[in-house]
């Protein structure tokens, strides 16, 4: 039996400044820190084992979320750059409106390998490193793991979990909210992989 709790990092400074994220490295806001504590409390209620393994993106907003979870659960965590958000190239750190004026969506016949003039990652490159991260996570000898990552990255964590072929991943996009928790479960008899809940946010009410 295996359980993975996927956490989308909580509110970051780039959110309140209206700036493009990607690899632009900002930490949590004060509200984001309170949200991370609420995530930690919810995970403490959900997880019955004493020492879950925590893996996090190495970007500050995810790492700081993981630090607060790890402190609550009394464990350490491992950083993994392959869990980063999709790189937005030269748009990173710029006002979101700047990107919105220049953004060109991928054409229907090239959803995986299209690269914008801004130098962002292609979806194939992005999904490839998230799939690689999940290979490492699933290869670990740990029945319960917490994966702290980013909004768009969560989509491809789930895609890798259900073994969606990379060639089909150009069409998937799941809704993720800052501080949302997704529970992935594999039973020990049929070895079926479930998504028990997606982007749960009740623990954030009132914050």
Give the neighbour order of strands across the main sheet: 3-2-4-1-5-6
Secondary-structure element pattern, one letter each = EHHEHEHHEHEE
Count of the separate structural domains: 1
Radius of gyration: 17 Å
**What is the helix content?**
25-40%
Going by CATH, the architecture would be 3-Layer(aba) Sandwich
CATH class: Alpha Beta
What is the structural class?
alpha/beta
Give the N-to-C terminal Cα separation: 34 Å
Structural account:
- The protein has one domain: 3-Layer(aba) Sandwich (Rossmann fold).
- The protein is of the alpha/beta class.
- It is globular.
- Helix 3 links the parallel strand 2 and strand 3.
- The model has no long low-confidence stretch (mean pLDDT 97).
- The protein has a 6-stranded mixed beta sheet.
- The chain contains 6 helices and 6 strands; from the N terminus they run βααβαβααβαββ.
How do you describe this structure in short?
By secondary structure, the chain is an alpha/beta fold.
Keywords, separated by commas or semicolons:
207 residues, alpha/beta, Rossmann fold, 6-stranded mixed sheet, 6 helices
